[in-house]
Amino acid sequence: MPSTPAVEHRHGHDVGEQLYVHRHTPIHLLPPEVKILTLVVFIFIVVATPIQAMWAFFLYAGLLMVLAAVAQLPPLVVLPRMVVEVPFLLFAALMPFTGPDPQVQVLGLELSEPGLWAAWGIIAKGTIGVLGAIILAATTPARDLLTGLKELHVPPMLVQIASFMLRYMHVVGNEMARMKVARESRGFQATGIRSWPVVAQSAGALFIRSYERGERVHLAMLSRGYTGSLPTMDTLKASRAQWLKGLGLPAIALVICLAAWAVQP
Amino acid sequence: MDPETSITGSPTPPSLAVSGLAYSYPDSNQALFGIDLEVGHGERVALLGPNGAGKTTLVMHLNGILSGGIGEVHVAGVRVDPENRETLHEVRRRVGIVFQDPDDQLFMPSVREDVAFGPANMGLRGEALEARVGHALDLVGMRDFADRPPHHLSFGQRRRVAVATVLSMEPEIIVLDEPSSNLDPASRAELADILRTLDVTILMVTHDLLYALELCPRSVIMSQGAIVADGPTRDLLSDTALMARYRLALPYGVTLEPKPTPS
Lengths: 265, 263
What we know:
The structure holds 2 protein chains of 2 kinds.
Chain A: H1 26-29, H2 32-47, H3 54-70, H4 75-81, H5 86-98, E1 103-106, E2 109-112, H6 113-139, H7 142-151, H8 156-185, H9 196-223, H10 240-262
Antiparallel strand pairs in A: 1-2
Chain B: H1 3-8, E1 16-24, E2 30-39, E3 44-48, H2 55-62, E4 70-75, E5 78-79, H3 85-94, E6 95-98, H4 102-105, H5 111-121, H6 126-139, H7 155-167, E7 173-177, H8 185-197, E8 201-205, H9 209-215, E9 218-223, E10 226-232, H10 233-238, H11 240-245
Parallel strand pairs in B: 3-8, 3-9, 6-7, 7-8
Antiparallel strand pairs in B: 1-2, 1-4, 4-5, 9-10
């Protein structure tokens, strides 16, 4: 029986799992639905905290850093991933210049005080949210995230869509790469605005191809008796102890949040 | 084996019985003009013909994906009736279609889940489902790959898993759309070995005439929505006039002599 040598990755290298960092830590072992709910509740609490209580956000960030350490995620893995946040930070950086009065002097610049606070709010809450999501993605394989969403009774249609996205990301990506090779083989070079129409046409063609593939996949599903739901195999329910463990994080966060409101002038 | 005797000589209904099937697409492009075709239980039949002959349209009728024309399709005695959800479900279990692109066929995140998809839709759960999946993967020699995601398999392996996804439904008939396309010669031979060992009726749509010759004692040629020839594969392929008329040709350098009829 011939076998391709390149397939001997057991875990952590699946499609959409480039984000997953394979370790054996208590955080990795928590069931996905516990981790997802924990993160969502935690982020809601963070967002509900008054931005004037700056200390609270440092505590939140500290909590997440402890989690990252427990999950054995080195800063060199986590920090580069935070780049996704940059566009939001740029937007936040504009706010002090465009915000309303009163103005304050900072380093010789006239800046809007409400704008400064709003920018701080975006930076602090955004960074904490991104950090939390990075930890979740690094400790949970993408497929388990889907099982978790299903366990949490997210509408099945949404979970199915996400699961197909996961399955076909590579297929569509390969198709895109082939189209690029085909373009370049015929002398196309992406240089400046003149090449945009060609790239846009390729994107359109890719969309149509993917749409047609969607139809074919649907046919294949119907042919095997699909009636609207994807069967799942062997899922273990999260135990009460696991839920308690997971909800420890939002519980601590809730205390911080309430304290922040309490000391609010 | 003479198909005629196997049909009439036993009480088993033919795996497939198509009678008077005609169909026009909604854009009024008529694709089928009265197809009659009977495939006996356990037969392996190749469906040949040029592009646009209506082969795929015919296949889509076999499990009720397309309907609305005239004529009837029976699968092991059950009429394909898209209005009747009960029998439609049963028909789709009995007719396993293996589509040409394994990436269309394999849509679940792992091989195991994909092979389980059909039987799970039929209501199988737990150990019975596991056993069914394991058996189907054994038949195509892919059990060791059960937990792999499909994109980690070679093309030939994906094609074999695609066959397993319909075998797990224990079908009456397997319909293969271009089973040898894009396979390297070794994978092509491996798949042939697997198909030969399967104890199931096979209808194979193909342009690969030598594959048809290798696997299917009987062939049917379609052209412009009608069946124009039906007979032993070797006889059809060695009839050069017939072949040329329907845009069929053996690979360069290959000639076939009709089999001397045994007395």
